[in-house]
C-alpha cells in the first residue's frame, strides 16, 4: 500500500540548513578590540621609535602612551576567559585602564582635524594648516581603539546584569555644560580674573552653541523610553562623537598637567602663568567630566534599547 501522507507541514521534516551565527556581544567587541589594538600598537611603536614630536603636538600625550594603552587592551582581551567574577573583574580593570590611556593618547585629535581642514581646502591659515601626519594617524587609531575597548569592557562588566537607568549622567552633564561658556561670557563682559592678555575674544556665540548642543544631547540620551531605531542610532552616534571629543580634550589637559607636575612630560600649560593655570585646569576638567557623563549616558541608552533577549525585562533606577 502506498503511503500518501502529506509531510510538508510535519514538525518532523528535515530542517533547512542554518548558517553559522556571527559573533555578537562581548565576543564581537573583543575581536574588534584585538584588531584595532594590534594596529594601534604597531603604529604607536613606530611613532615612539621615531623623532620626538615637535610643534603643536609637542604638548600632547607622550609617544609611549598609545602603545602601552594598546598593549593593555590586548591583555584585557586575552584575559577574558570564562565567566568567573574574578576573571571579569580583571578584564574590566585592564580594559578600563586601557580605555583611559587611549583617550589620553587621542588627545589633540580635534586640533588635528581643524588643521587638516585648512591643509586640504587651501584656505590661508599660516602654520595652522601644518599637520603632524604620523602623530595624527596614531591619535586617530587610539580614538577608535578607545571606543571599541570601552564597548568591550562594558560588555564584560555588565554581562548578565539588568539594564540600569542612572540619573547622575544627566545631572552632572548638564551642570558641567555651564562653566566654560560662562567663563567666556565673563571675559567678554570685561572680567579680568584669569583672563589672558591681550584679550581679543568676541561674544562667545560658538561656545554657547556648542555646550547647548551638548546639554540637549545629554537630555536626549537620558530620556526614557528610548526613541525609535533611527533616532536612537543617530543619538548614540552623536553621543560617541561628543563623548570622545570631551574625553580626549579633557584628558589631554588634565593628565598632561599631572604628568607635567610629576616631571614626566613638558605638559600643555605654563605653570608659571598664575591664575590662568588654575582656570585652564578647571575649565578643561569640566570637559573631561562632560565626556564621562556623555559616555555613560550613551552606554546606558544602548543597554536600554529593546532587544529580543531582554523583552519583558525591567530596568533598575539608581541615583
TrEMBL record:
What keywords are annotated for this sequence in UniProt?
A: Membrane, Transmembrane, Transmembrane helix
List residues traversing the bilayer.
56-80, 92-117, 137-159, 171-189, 201-221, 233-255, 275-297
Source organism superkingdom: Bacteria
| UniProt region (Disordered), positions on chain | 1-29
Q: According to the UniProt entry, which residue ranges have a biased composition of type Low complexity?
A: 11-29
Q: Where is the composition biased (Polar residues)?
A: 1-10
| Keyword Ion transport belongs to the record | no
Q: What is the protein name for this chain?
A: Integral membrane protein
Amino acid at each position: 500500500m502506498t503511503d500518501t501522507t502529506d509531510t510538508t507541514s510535519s514538525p518532523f521534516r528535515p530542517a533547512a540548513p542554518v548558517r553559522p551565527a556571527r559573533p555578537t556581544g562581548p565576543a564581537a567587541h573583543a575581536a574588534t578590540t584585538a584588531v584595532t589594538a594590534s594596529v594601534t600598537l604597531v603604529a604607536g611603536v613606530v611613532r615612539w621609535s621615531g623623532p620626538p614630536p615637535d610643534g603643536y603636538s609637542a604638548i600632547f600625550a607622550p609617544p609611549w602612551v598609545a602603545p602601552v594603552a594598546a598593549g593593555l587592551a590586548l591583555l584585557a582581551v586575552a584575559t577574558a576567559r570564562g565567566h568567573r567574577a574574578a576573571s571579569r573583574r580583571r578584564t574590566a580593570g585592564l580594559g578600563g585602564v586601557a580605555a583611559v590611556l587611549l583617550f589620553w593618547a587621542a588627545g589633540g585629535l580635534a586640533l588635528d582635524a581643524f588643521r587638516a581642514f585648512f591643509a586640504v581646502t587651501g584656505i590661508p591659515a599660516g602654520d595652522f594648516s601644518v599637520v603632524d601626519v604620523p602623530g595624527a594617524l596614531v591619535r586617530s587609531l587610539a580614538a577608535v581603539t578607545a571606543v571599541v575597548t570601552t564597548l568591550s569592557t562594558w560588555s564584560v562588566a555588565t554581562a548578565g546584569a539588568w539594564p540600569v537607568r542612572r540619573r547622575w549622567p544627566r545631572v552632572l552633564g548638564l551642570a558641567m555644560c555651564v562653566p566654560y561658556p560662562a567663563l567666556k561670557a565673563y571675559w567678554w563682559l570685561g572680567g579680568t580674573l584669569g583672563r589672558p592678555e591681550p584679550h581679543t575674544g568676541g561674544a562667545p556665540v560658538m561656545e554657547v552653541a556648542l555646550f547647548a548642543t551638548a546639554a540637549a544631547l545629554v537630555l536626549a540620551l537620558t530620556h526614557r523610553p528610548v526613541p525609535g531605531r533611527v533616532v536612537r542610532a543617530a543619538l548614540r552616534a552623536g553621543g560617541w562623537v561628543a563623548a570622545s571629543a570631551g574625553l580626549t580634550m579633557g584628558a589631554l589637559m588634565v593628565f598632561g598637567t599631572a604628568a607635567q607636575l610629576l616631571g614626566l612630560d613638558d605638559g600643555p600649560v605654563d605653570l608659571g602663568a598664575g591664575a590662568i593655570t588654575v582656570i585652564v585646569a578647571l575649565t578643561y576638567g569640566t570637559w573631561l567630566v562632560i565626556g564621562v557623563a556623555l559616555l555613560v549616558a550613551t552606554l546606558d541608552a544602548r543597554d536600554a534599547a529593546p532587544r529580543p533577549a531582554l523583552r519583558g525585562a525591567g530596568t533598575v533606577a539608581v541615583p
